[in-house]
Structures are given as structure tokens and as C-alpha cells.
Amino acid sequence: MTEDNNNPETESKIESELFALVKSITNLNNKYQKGIVNQNFFKKALKTTMNNILKLNFTLKENKLQLPDLLNRMDFTQDYNSAIEIINRVSSLNLSDNSIATNNRTFLELPGITSEITTSFITLMDALTLDGLTKNDLIFNLFEELTYNLGKFPGLDDILSRVKSVQTNALNHDDQIFSNTNLREKLIEDLYQIFKEFQNKLSLKP
């Protein structure tokens, strides 16, 4: 439920942005169906709008707002669901070229998966900074968790490949992870650069 202490001005701004994004998807789809815009423009514009909805979901979370409550208050649930149906329906147009495709997942799942990926990156990098660890099972379990979460989010094959490369480097030096400070720093730096690319790719950086 929405908390009573939320800023009405913030809520109003979020409602306006949500309304504009949903209407943008609907209008874009109508123009595409009528042949007013071509497929290339449609794909690029839809990608931008999808990214903005994704960011808006994080804004909702930051402000302790629940999307269903917001939609009910706006009497906008049906419109929102129609927009999501459009996104899911056009996933067959191969939106995966540097975009967010669905790949048998509904778009509503993506913010949660993104949060899991972010947590996995940070937890793994934090674990590599810890002194006193003597077993590397924790590190490799965290690598597995990160690659698993990345695999759930379509369109991140390049990010996943780079993480696996860092993981292979760690495996090749598994007996030195806790004794070689330079190695750990290199692993952390490589992961951090990939993490920044992940943030930039989804336009999640503030």
C-alpha cells in the first residue's frame, strides 16, 4: 500500500510521467499499424519508452509507491495493461539488438531482475574486498548467481560474456584469490567496469 507520508507533488509528477509513457506506447503502436512510421523507427521509439518505464519503476520503489495503487487511483489500469500487451506482442519483432526484449518473460518482471543483477554485482565486488576469507566457494557461488541473473535478462549477451571471462580468470587463479591482493583488485576493477556498462546500457545511472 502507498504510505501516507509520500510527497503529493512527487506522486503527481510520477502519475503524469506514467500517463505520458503509456499514451506514447499506444500512439506509437497506432501509427505503426497505420504505416505512418516504419519498423525501424517503431523499434527505436519503443525501446526508449520501455527504458523510461523501467526507470519509472525504480522511482516508484524509491518513493515507496505501489504501481497497482497508483493505477487504481488514476483509473488507468486498463490503459497500462494494454500498453504492456503491446510491448509483449511486438517482442517477436526482434527488439534484442541493443534493446530490452522479453524472451518469454513479461516486461513487468524486468525491474525485479535488474535489481537482482545490481545486487549480485555489488555483493560479489564486496566479497572480493573482504579480508580473512580462506575458502573461495563463496566467490564462485556469487559468480554463478550473477551469471544466472544476467541470463534471465534478454539482450545482455555481451555483458554476460564479459562477466564469464572474469569468472574464468578467477577460476584459473583460484588458489591465489585470497593471497594475491593485485589479483583481487583486478577482478574488482573488471567487474566494476562491466557493472558501469550495465548501468549505462539500461540508462539506470542517476
Task: Give a description of the structure.
The protein is elongated and about 60 Å long. Helix 1 packs across helix 4 (77-89). The chain has helices at residues 8-33, 39-62, 67-74, 77-89, 110-129, 137-152, 157-172, 181-201. It is mostly helical and 206 residues long.
Short synopsis of the structure:
The chain is mainly α. Helix content is 70%, strand content 0%. Helix 5 runs antiparallel to helix 8 (181-201) and helix 6 (137-152) packs antiparallel against helix 7.
How can the largest sheet be summarized? Answer: none
Order of helices and strands: HHHHHHHH
Work out the strand percent.
Answer: under 5%
Shape: elongated
Helical stretch tally: 8
Multimeric organization: single chain
List how many beta strands DSSP finds: 0
> Unreliable segments (pLDDT under 50, ≥5 consecutive)?
92-105
How much is the radius of gyration in Å?
20 Å
Give me the secondary-structure topology.
Elements: H1 8-33, H2 39-62, H3 67-74, H4 77-89, H5 110-129, H6 137-152, H7 157-172, H8 181-201
List the defining traits of the structure above.
206 residues, mainly alpha, 8 helices, 70% helix, elongated
